[in-house]
Amino acid sequence: MVVPMTFADMFRFNAQVMGFGAGGWMEQILNSFGDIVTNASDSLRLHEECDLLSLRLDKVSKGQAPNLSQFKSCMLASLRSLLPKEWDTQYEVAWNWLWDNVAQLLVKTLGASYAWEVAVNRFFASLVEDTRYQLRASIYDRFFDSTPAGQEYFKQSDTRLHFIVEKVFTFSMEIYAEPWQMIDDLSALGLRHVGYGVPTEMFAPFVCACVDVIRGATDDAVAVLGFKWSLGIVSKQLVRTVAEGSTIVMKAVNANSKKMLQRAISCAPRGQRFQWLLKVQVGTQSISPLYWAIQSGNLAAAEAIIQDLLVFRADRERYYYGNDALFERHQDIINCLCREAPMLIPTLLDGLMWRSARTEKGLRRVNYYVKHLLVNQEGEPAEFLREICTTKDPKIMVHPVVVTVSDTLWNGLVRNHFLLSRLWFLVSLVVFMLSQAILPKEPALEGIFSVRVAVFFGRSLMYAVTMTRLFLRCMWKSGKDCRKGKVFYIFRCFPMPKYLHNAMALGNLALAVLLMLMCAYEPMYVCLMSDPQDWPTYDCDGIEDVRWTYSALGLLAMAVHWFLMVDLAVFSTGLSAFVLVCAQVLSEIGRFLVALIFLLLTFGSAISVLEHPYFEMRDIPNTVLCLFSITILLYEDDYRTLMEEPALLTAVLLFVLASSILLMNLLIAQLNSSYVYIYQDMVGFARLNRAQKIVEALANFNRQHFSTFINSIGLDQPLEFNQGDVGVAGGLQLTEPASEHVVLKDSILRFGGSCSMELEWPEESKSREDKDQISKVESLAKKVLRKVQLMERVQHGGLEQMLHVTRPHLFNGSWMRDVATHQQLLGQALKYVPGPEVCLRIFNLLHPPKTFPSTQGDECAIMSYYDGGHKQAWSGAEEFHLGPEDEGIAYGRRVELLKAIREQRQQLDMKDEQLEEHKRKLEHFQEELARCLDPDEAKILRSRLAHANAQITEQAEEIDDKRSQVRVLEGQVSVLSSHLKQEAEKNTQLIAEQCALRRQLEAEYALRGEQKSWQDCFEQEQQKAATLQLRLEAQVKEAAQKQLAAETAKQKLQGQVQELQELAKIGQEAMDFKAKAEKLAAELQVAHTMQSRLQGELDAVKQQSGSLQAALDEANRQSAKLSVAEHKAATAEQQVQQLGSRLQIAEKKAAEVPVLERQLQEKQQEMESQARGYGYCRSKDSTTYIHVAQRGGFLGIAVWRTRNGASYTPAIRLWASSCR
């Protein structure tokens, strides 16, 4: 038998021994007992745990009230058994006190949840939708009235707000039905509220608003009480979850601040730093700060968490690296980043590699910690490459970590498997070519019998093996996708397996179909049935009908077979990149073909309508074919044959212009643009293709073979950082050229001091600043490199445009010849030069072109021809003379000035020519006008023109007058408007004064009414005071008589107090006897236990020899002692009972002492007040006291009302002066 060593096991054992049974309601208390004991000092949490426990007990007991004393007995027995040496009376008293309090809390609500659940469900079931809508709206109105700040946290739409309240109603009902599941759901909901940053102060007003609205909507008090109790449990659970989950890390994540996160995590113990960043546990639920930052869009905080996790920290004893903690907590971190934050993938990958700052023989050591990217925790291939391929980002595919993972799997595992899977395809292609394209096409081999037999077997092998293999593979893959529901739709109507969405899979299916059709039209099979004497042969009389069909099918099958061989380009990254580039530009060719077909149909149909004698363009098909031949330069006729038909020639020339000139050049431009775009990421696309092949191969790979490969690469072996410095395991160590990456400083953060895991890391501010500076320098270097690449393209473009011939100073630096200081550089050489040209000059000076286009000696003449035609190219400063005052100008500046003068003169000459041209045109127009008109008509026209000009002048003057009048009116309007504004301001002031006077008048009326009401009240109270004074005088006389009786009672009370003191001493002795009795009871319990153990030993001894008789005698002596102890215990119990009865009598008398003392004090007060002129009056129910005093001609009346006869609370205090 195994001895129980834990409290839970010992409790279950004792429950079985005592006959209480295991499970049921006891098991529920046992499950919650740890939380109860842990939170015994927190009264609110203890109440919460007891409420939940009572609800669970009601669900388990099913109406039968549990006997809580049974749990107490098992609990104490278990604790005594587990702590036999430490257990004493203090433990006994403490655990009894704890359980008594718990039982008292449980009894309050135990059994009440049944009625509450029925009432709450009945109430909500009786509500119609309109009523529920009004209740939800009323809750928010009540909540916003009581807590206006809550409006800042409920800014969603109205439907969302109503959904929240409806969930509150649901929680209040479901907490009764499924309390276990609801607690887990509420914990998860509370953790989400931690991320939302909702303050816990808002929960209580919201719950009060809900309860108040429900109370006003129903008269069922049980339903209101049940709703209030269940909603209270829900709110307490949410508040506690939010309070416990609101760590400083979560607050920093919600603020999306890197600095706050670094400060928050800096106080974490180094052994728990990763736990702080990855897990916040509350009850049975947990939340990840990293995942919450990613899902909520706080990517700055998420990046800081990833960087902090993947930084190497070290003391003298161990290394700290969060790679394992990250992937153990979040196995799907790559999937999460690919879906929600792809920009964080480079940050994660950068943290998975370490580069040494030292180099050896021109090589640098690099550690890639890729264990979790290769294999998951179950030993199966990780989903890293699959998820990375879904991003289809070529830049990520060339990351060193991705390249390492891909190359490791390809070179060590997938390459040979892929080659073997394609080996049969290669053999099939060779057999297909021999049997279709080589042996049957050689005339010298037609008569050889063995050749014909080889052709027959080759073709039969293709049909029997290749075709069958392709069909079976396609059916298996398609069926697998259909079972998993992986389909895509063609034209949104026809579902197809996702396997056929791949071009290679579709090519395999097409090849299988073509082989099946070739088998149906196979000539050798036809000859076997028609002419079996000469068989095997593929040339007989019966194949004339199928010869061409079979050859066409063979052409297509051969083309598809060779197309499928493109898949083997994956072995070479460069070749694969070229194939991908070709595939990418095919889309541009497709667009070109669509446009060309449109033009062919347009012009073909248009030309066929035209009446012409040209036979080659007699109808639409022939016209389209003829135009297409013209486009691809295969048309043999000349355009001169169309000279007799101008309309036809014009249509053909327009088609050539649109197709050969426009479309062809546009296609070239598009292909060039696409190639430039794809070429930048060509290697990334090639690696993406290889990664997809690796993923497909790993999906069908043998798991045992994969495990062997993983064990062979030694991922469990620690890797060295530098020689003799053994680091952490889980990676691969490679070397790279030292010049490939610049490493200025070791990335491992090393710290001295204590190596305790309980201490936090020292301050990292300096190292963080250094790291920030290095990152800034690296980012600046990257920006400079991008600018240099841009300027190199600009420089190359300038060379292509022959600027080194037309503007040589941009490239040869001649403008810097006489520059000696920066003042000369900025004040003379570059003062009048545009900014872009300054950049180009300086860049060409610092980074001159490596090569120049080859010169022929006539570049100046060529450029001048294209610039001006008949003008000569300017070659220097020989045309202009510089005076002595210009001798201080630099040579480069001279050249620029002379060129500027030349350009200005050219512009002036052009303007002079334009002016002369305009003069000539004017004279020509005047001559034409004089020639076309008679002198008399010209005079009439001139007079009319003068009259019209005079009318126009008069109208212009009238318009000016009107405008002046309008300006005057506008001025008047502005003056009037200003006066109107002033009057409005005065009216506003008068209205404000009127309102103020009205408020003063109202206040005066209110004050007068108040004074009148107070006067009436004073008169009434004065009458009441007179009546009370008469009553008090009578009571004062009675008080004098009672004073004598009080003195007598006081003497009696003093005697009783002495007796009670004696009884208290007796009670103390009784307590001592009781303690002794408990001690004897404990000894009795120990004796019973010893007796049972000895009895067991005695039974065992009886089965053995009689040599153990001494032990039996000892047992008898112990039994005798036990009987004596039982007698003493019985005597002690009788004494305890007698003392208990006497103690009860003493307690009753002690309870009468405060009453007597209070009566005595009242008598003394009455006597003292009578002596000072005070009077008291008490009502019959002893709850109202009236105090009357008269001093110096003033009468004071005070009325007190007591609560439960215990305390005096002032209810009304009125003082009034009496008339003198």
Automatic annotation (TrEMBL):
Annotated coiled-coil segments of the chain: 894-972, 1018-1070, 1098-1166
- Spell out the SUPFAM superfamilies in the cross-references: Globin-like
Keyword Membrane part of the UniProt annotation: yes
* Record has Magnesium as a keyword: no
Which InterPro entries does the annotation name? Globin-like_sf, Globin/Proto, TRPV
Could you tell me the keywords of this UniProt record?
A: Coiled coil, Membrane, Repeat, Transmembrane, Transmembrane helix
Parts of the chain that traverse the membrane: 419-439, 451-472, 505-526, 559-582, 589-608, 620-635, 647-668
> Know the name of this protein?
Globin family profile domain-containing protein
